[in-house]
Amino acid sequence: MGVRVKIVLIEDNLDMQILLSDYLINYGYSVFTFSDPIDALSEIKNKNNFDLIILDLMLPKMDGFDVCKNIRKISTVPVIISSARGNISDKVIAFEYGADDYLAKPYEPKELLLRMDAIFRRVKRIDGVKKIGDFEIDDRKMEIVHQGNILELTKIEFQILKFFLDNPKIALSRESIANHLGMDYSFERNIDMHISNIRNKLFDDSKNPKYIKSIWGVGYKYMG
Asked: Which pTM was predicted?
């Protein structure tokens, strides 16, 4: 498998937690298990280097939908809902809150594995490198390659461009970009400058953009 893929499993049913964890470890995944969603969110926020999250909905202290919503505020990592709540309305809400897939319990662990493989194929993650359109993202090296050329990006420019690439065709406000970077409100005034620098490095004409389009009154979006 090359670099071991890191999975976060948020599941308070210990029998289910052990079953899924052992199964995934047997297939070569690194699994980080949590019964407490607040502890899981803290770990995701602090490390932000996980490849996929498997999330139960019926959890102590916080509903799984709220957990999913909070994950999306700090990370674009794929989320698979694993829940006994299998009605259509729950599935709709889960996808609206940013989930990538939904598995209704009971299910065979093999089906979970297949859903995970499908997600990894979509993002084309190979040995830690994710390919999106004309770009390749290497989180470990904090590098983005554009059409075969490594972009000379600052740390903040890397984080902003990666945020765009992970959210194609979604209008992102300056506030949401600042929040994603963990910056306060005052940083929003600098975002236009950083995006201008990114555009220059991509040779992207702001008046006729191929990649980053200005959305009047909102912010920016990656054209995808």
From this structure: 0.57
Q: What is the pLDDT along the chain (224 residues), one digit of tens a residue?
A: 445 789 999 999 999 999 999 999 998 899 999 999 999 999 998 877 788 999 999 999 899 999 999 998 888 889 999 999 888 989 999 998 889 999 999 999 999 999 998 888 776 555 567 778 889 898 878 899 998 889 999 999 999 999 999 888 888 998 889 888 888 767 777 899 999 999 999 999 989 999 999 998 889 999 87
Domains along the chain?
Answer: 6-123 (3.40.50.2300), 129-222 (1.10.10.10)
- Please count the other Cβ atoms lying within 10 Å of the Cβ belonging to residue 154: 11
From CA 35, how far away is CA 106, in angstroms rounded?
Answer: 19
What count of other Cβ atoms lies within 10 Å of the Cβ of residue 71? 24
In whole angstroms, what is the distance from residue 115 CA to residue 47 CA?
Answer: 24
